[in-house]
Amino acid sequence: MEHQIRTLTARLLANRSLPRTDPLVRRALVDESFRVDLDARLAAVGLQLIDNPYAEHVAVALAGDMHEPVFGASREYAASNIGLTRDQLALLVVLWSLIILPKRERQVNRQKLGDDGQEDMFGKAAPLAHGEEVSGALSEASVLADFAPVLGHKTYVQGKLLSRLAQLGFIERRGGMIHEGPLLDVLLDYRLLADRIIYGTLGEVLAQAGHPPPGQDAFTPADDMPDDADSEQEES
Q1: Which residue, among 231, 217, 224, 213, has the nearest Cα to 102 in the 3D structure?
Q2: Residue 157: left (phi > 0), alpha (psi -120 to 50), or beta?
Q3: DSSP per residue over 156-205, as a string?
Q4: Low-confidence ranges of the chain (pLDDT < 70)
């Protein structure tokens, strides 16, 4: 087991994220003793495993008590600890809202893309879905038309904003479409952002751009979100 924990730790650090379907990742999610040892190994160097049961990937991030010692000396830390500019952060939150909020609604309701939920009377008992079957894509041209006038000209948004978010793994750009990247759902805190977006200023901005976020009733309250073990049993 020691060798597997070392291997998984090294791969997480080297790749930044790993899919939940990876054999060692799945073991970390269902084997309590393996997870305890992995958490201890990561904690020894100030890290923690980030696992959202709705996300398709897991990742590593700094432990909470390490934020200030690591980033506190940098003035930029107030805005971003990965060097994102304000406009890059703004676009990241917009894309998260347009991709993850509808995706979460489909996951909570056990619906796939293009499914209105009326054909399956046992939909609520279906396994929690991940990947392309629930995560929609955005037209890059549509995003540019809606938000480039606010964030800068088209070339700037494509070359400086979208390319940086893709490089970091938040999004993937394929065939003129913007898809969810491995880090988009796992590193941005849904519980923190959802209410602020649905009820906040960004919700109005999205609505004005023709992208109203889904209604609050579709979402699971924080206390009702499934834990890791329950989620993995559903996937099995």
Answers
A1: 213
A2: alpha
A3: HIIIIIIHHHHHHTSEEEETTEEEE-TTHHHHS-HHHHHHHHHHSHHHHH
A4: 73-82, 112-133, 201-203, 205-206, 209, 213-236
Q: Answer for the pair 91, 162: CB distance below 8 angstroms, yes or no.
A: yes
Within the chain, strands assigned E span 17-19, 47-51, 57-62, 138-139, 171-174, 177-180
* pTM over cut 0.90: no
**How many angstroms separate the CA atoms of 188 and 100, rounded?**
10
129-147 per-position pLDDT tens digit = 656 567 788 999 999 999 9
CB atoms within 10 A of CB 197: 21
Burial class (CB in 10 A: 0-12, 13-18, 19+), 59: buried
Cα–Cα distance, 173 to 187 (Å, whole number): 19
Hey, what are 188's tokens? 């941005």
Distances (CA, A) of 173 to 137, 179, 211: 9, 6, 20
In total, the chain counts a number of residues equal to: 236
Partners of 49 in beta bridges: 60
> Where are the domains positioned within the chain?
2-71, 79-235
Which of 27, 41, 40 lies closest to 228 in space, CA to CA? 27
pLDDT tens track for 82-100: 678 889 998 999 999 899 9
Structure tokens at 220: 């699971």
